[in-house]
TrEMBL record:
PROSITE patterns: PLAT (PS50095). It comes from Bucco capensis. Gene3D superfamilies: PLAT/LH2 domain. InterPro entries: PLAT/LH2_dom, PLAT/LH2_dom_sf. The lineage of its organism: Eukaryota, Metazoa, Chordata, Craniata, Vertebrata. This is LX12B protein. The gene is Alox12b. Residues 2-109 form the PLAT domain.
Length: 109
């Protein structure tokens, strides 16, 4: 099994985040990851706003955020070729805007 870390950051302005469901699929030279929902952040027990002082404290997903996530794959993907972002409306709510400022991916180990 291979684990990839994904760090996602929204822009610094208010309402840069989203209430929509966000997911990711990684494609490499040796295969592709399952579609993975970016729901629960992996930041331990420290609130994200204490880890990233450049952001204004806010607990709403609509506020600027930085999250660290894990994508688990049955095998290593080789050299990454493509990263696909999935954005779907949350429940029956209308789709909302989302400002993705940056995304970084690296393999654990």
């Amino acid at each position: 099994m291979a684990t990839y870390w994904v760090q996602v950051a929204t822009g610094p302005q208010p309402l840069a985040g989203t209430m929509d469901s966000i997911g990711i699929t990684l494609l490499g030279t040796h295969g592709c990851s399952p579609r993975t929902a970016l729901g629960a952040m992996v930041l331990g027990t420290t609130p994200w706003w204490q880890c990233h002082s450049e952001f204004v404290p806010c607990v709403s997903p609509a506020c600027p955020q930085r999250g660290l996530y894990q994508v688990h794959c049955p095998q290593a993907l080789g050299s990454l070729l493509l990263l696909q972002i999935h954005k779907d409306p949350f429940g029956n709510l209308p789709e909302s805007n989302w400002y993705l400022e940056s995304i970084s991916v690296w393999q654990e180990g």
